[in-house]
């Protein structure tokens, strides 16, 4: 993945390693959540959060409106499909 793409955290797969499952336009992938957890926002609170995903990490939390606007712009620019293809290929590697 070359850029941050919005996705929603749908599950925590390994709380001890800060890993969760993110859904990006119906493509699900396990990512690292270490950058978006804190004492004020523990791993258990991440389910439902929208995040910017880059190279297997959730880099920051964003709100749902910002996620939708970003996805729309990326779709208009033709950037979503290549990113989703990269996610799918990474899962099969």
Task: Walk me through the structure.
- This protein is 28% helix and 35% strand.
- It is of the alpha+beta class.
- The protein has one domain: SH3 type barrels, CATH 2.30.30.
- The chain has a five-stranded antiparallel β-sheet.
- The chain is globular and about 35 Å long.
- The mean pLDDT is 88.
Summarize the entry for a quick read.
With 93 residues, this protein is an alpha+beta fold.
Q: Give me the side-by-side strand order of the main sheet.
A: 3-2-1-4-5
CATH class: Mainly Beta
Tell me the number of helical segments per DSSP (H or I, 4 or more residues long): 2
Number of domains: 1
Gross morphology is: globular
Q: Which blocks of ≥5 consecutive residues have pLDDT under 50?
A: none
Give the class from helix and strand content and strand pairing. Answer: alpha+beta
The CATH topology is given as SH3 type barrels
The portion of residues assigned to helices is: 25-40%
* CATH architectural designation: Roll
What is the helix/strand order?
A: EEEEEHH
Q: Indicate the mean pLDDT.
A: 88
Distance between the termini: 14 Å
Largest sheet: 5 strands, antiparallel
Strand percentage: 35-45%
Number of beta strands: 5
């Amino acid at each position: 993945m070359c850029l941050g793409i919005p996705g929603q955290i749908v599950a925590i797969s390994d709380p001890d390693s800060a890993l969760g499952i993110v859904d990006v336009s119906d493509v699900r992938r396990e990512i690292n959540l270490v950058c978006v957890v804190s004492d004020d926002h523990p791993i258990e609170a991440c389910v439902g959060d929208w995040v910017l995903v880059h190279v297997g990490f959730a880099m920051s939390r964003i709100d749902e409106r910002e996620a939708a606007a970003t996805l729309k712009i990326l779709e208009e620019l033709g950037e979503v499909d290549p990113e989703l293809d990269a996610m799918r290929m990474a899962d099969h590697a």
